[in-house]
Task: inverse folding
């Protein structure tokens, strides 16, 4: 058999390199897709069982003498979680209604309100709380862990969780009346 | 008596003007302590909590104004730059800082990716410029070119004779 050599007509990147390039591209696309999907997901939806989280509380706004509240300790109560900030003007529109609702439901011991202060500074937060006479437990959303869990899109946002820890309603934007708050709490109390 | 007093009037006016000038000079020269420059030096290293990709020193929102005031307060309390930035990271999360949280991974991964890309490009260009020699009908012996040019054939013949 004769031997001969000819220049190869195949030109290109070796297979191992092609695999790396494609793997990198697929990984990158997956990452972008995950990011986009997370953005379009919106807030946590009703029906979702809320996992435990810890909210440190501002001094003067403790709950049962504790400086932090564990969500799991609230099982058996209707929980109203309100995300707010002192720099948020729409939050001011609902602040009085929320406090009024808290004063209505607090004596029963079946409802608890939690104010989650989103990316705020404590001095301004305290001024805000004092200005609207807010007395229910309030604390900062440290490292934005709670808002990230709820996938909040802004402030104000309010989440109503039933006695079993299941999210039942999400209010995006401010409440315009106390009746709107009652409309969400009363059916949950009757269950 | 009155005449002597009136003679002093221009001096009194000049003294009053000078005093006013000195007062206003001091008023305008005063800056809040610490100064905006000192606050912004730290604010540059932080990002707005509300708007995306906006450095704190350039952000006009109320939230950013509050953050800058907090920096000023902390500076006045004697906190260092590192302590202030760490406070913001601890309170608001790593996204508040301009520095990535995992520096090694943040700098190493892009560097490795770029080097790998350059390597692939160089390899690709090399292959385009010098196509590899592929053996066809390979036998046991080493392949030899078959001279087709009569001049090369004769040259080969002459070389064989000289051996």
Result:
């Amino acid at each position: 058999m004769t031997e001969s050599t000819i220049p190869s007509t195949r030109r290109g990147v070796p297979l191992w390199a092609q695999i790396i390039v494609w793997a990198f591209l697929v990984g990158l696309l997956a990452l972008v897709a995950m990011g986009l999907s997370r953005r379009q997901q919106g807030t946590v939806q009703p029906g979702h069982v809320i996992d435990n989280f810890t909210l440190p509380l501002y001094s003067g706004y403790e709950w049962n003498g504790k400086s932090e509240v564990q969500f799991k300790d609230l099982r058996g109560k209707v929980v109203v979680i309100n995300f707010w900030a002192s720099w948020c003007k729409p939050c001011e529109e609902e602040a009085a209604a929320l406090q009024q609702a808290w004063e209505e439901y607090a004596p029963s011991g079946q409802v608890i309100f939690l104010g989650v202060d989103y990316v705020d500074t404590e001095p301004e937060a305290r001024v805000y709380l004092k200005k609207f006479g807010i007395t229910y437990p309030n604390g900062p959303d440290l490292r934005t862990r709670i808002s990230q869990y709820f996938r909040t899109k802004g402030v104000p946002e309010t989440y109503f969780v039933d006695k079993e820890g299941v999210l039942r309603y999400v209010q995006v934007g401010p409440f315009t009346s106390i009746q709107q708050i009652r409309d969400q709490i009363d059916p949950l109390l009757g269950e | 008596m009155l005449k002597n007093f009136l003679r002093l009037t221009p001096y009194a006016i000049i003294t009053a003007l000078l005093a006013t000038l000195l007062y206003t000079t001091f008023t305008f020269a005063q800056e809040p302590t610490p100064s905006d420059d000192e606050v912004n030096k730290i604010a540059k290293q932080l990002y707005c909590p509300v708007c995306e990709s906006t450095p704190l020193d350039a952000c006009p929102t109320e939230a950013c104004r509050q953050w800058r005031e907090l920096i000023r307060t902390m500076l006045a309390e004697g906190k260092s730059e590192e302590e202030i930035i760490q406070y913001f990271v601890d309170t608001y999360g790593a996204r508040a800082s301009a520095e990535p949280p995992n520096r090694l991974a943040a700098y190493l991964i892009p560097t490795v990716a770029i080097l790998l890309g350059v390597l692939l490009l160089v390899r690709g260009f090399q292959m385009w410029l010098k196509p590899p020699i592929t053996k066809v009908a390979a036998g046991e012996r080493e392949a030899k070119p078959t001279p087709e040019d009569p001049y090369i054939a004769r040259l080969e013949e002459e070389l064989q004779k000289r051996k």
